[in-house]
Design a protein that fits this description.
Layout lengths: L18 H15 L9 E2 L4 E2 L10 E9 L12 E4 L3 E2 L4 H11 L2 H5 L2 E6 L5 H13 L5 E3 L2 E2 L3
Parallel strand pairs: 2-8, 3-6, 6-7
Antiparallel strand pairs: 1-3, 3-4, 4-5
């Protein structure tokens, strides 16, 4: 009587031919879902806390940052309060012209729903914020929201 022997088979190696396709697919996915910042803040601001906080829509949103100026490393450069609109510093008197310029770059449906988001430091004087609001009112930018964080209980 003879025994049947099965021949020993080597385990085949792992096929890595599709690995580059997988890597590029994952890279493409992360490129699509990553949110890049439109405006880089050049002022230091600490957002005040609020109790009734809602998330704003992105369409037709213009940011105004109010705070102390900082350099590229994040160090405060002076103690005067600066206003930043679209990656550059502006004076209060220039805000109306800049808002009209931003409005002209928007699509028609975004112009009707344009919202100006004021991100001011919690220690900013209310007089500066009031001057900004008066300039916005003069050019018809009446939808204004103030950025804040939810108050911890």
């Amino acid at each position: 009587m003879s025994r049947w022997r099965r021949p020993q088979r080597d385990v085949p190696g792992l096929n890595l031919a599709s690995l580059p396709d997988l890597i590029f697919t994952v890279l493409f996915f992360f490129m699509i879902v990553t949110h890049m910042r439109d405006v880089e803040p050049k002022v230091r601001y600490e957002v005040p806390q609020g109790t009734e906080v809602e998330k704003a829509q992105k369409a037709g949103l213009v940011y105004i940052f109010i705070g102390k100026p900082v350099d590229a490393q994040g160090r405060q450069t002076s103690d005067e309060t600066c206003i930043q609109l679209n990656n550059r510093y502006v004076a209060v008197s220039e805000i109306g012209r800049e808002i009209q310029h931003e409005r002209s770059k928007m699509a028609e449906h975004e112009r009707q729903h344009m919202v100006v988001s004021i991100r001011a430091d919690r220690d900013t004087e209310m007089g500066i914020i009031n001057d900004v609001k008066q300039e916005l009112r003069a050019v018809g930018a009446l939808n204004i929201n103030y950025s804040a964080v939810k108050k911890e209980k």
